[in-house]
Design a protein that fits this description.
Blueprint: E1 27-28, E2 32-36, E3 42-46, H1 55-63
Antiparallel strand pairs: 1-2, 2-3
C-alpha cells in the first residue's frame, strides 16, 4: 500500500495563484483588444471577439509596446561562387 496518496481534507482550502505583479488595464483599438489573463499571459481579441494567435499576435503586442522584443533578424547567407 505504498502507492496510496493522502487525500486532502475537505476543510483545507486550495491555494490560489497570485495575480500578475503588473496591473494591466485592457487596451482597446479599432480592430483589436489586448487583455491580460490571470496567468500573466496576454490575450489579443479581434473586433468579433475571436483570439488572434501566432506571429500576428506577437506583432500586435510589439506595436502596442506591451512587450519589449529584440529578435534576431533572419540571417541571409550569401553563397560565393569561385
Amino acid at each position: 500500500m505504498a502507492g496510496n496518496k493522502a487525500k486532502p481534507k475537505a476543510t483545507e482550502k486550495k491555494v490560489r495563484r497570485a495575480k500578475p505583479a503588473i496591473e494591466f488595464k485592457p487596451m482597446s483599438f479599432k480592430d483589436f483588444t489586448i487583455k491580460q489573463k490571470n496567468s500573466g499571459r496576454f490575450e489579443v481579441l479581434n473586433s468579433k471577439g475571436k483570439n488572434i494567435n501566432g506571429e500576428e499576435k506577437v506583432k500586435l503586442l510589439l506595436d502596442a509596446k506591451v512587450l519589449k522584443g529584440s529578435f534576431k533578424k533572419a540571417s541571409t547567407e550569401e553563397t560565393t561562387t569561385a
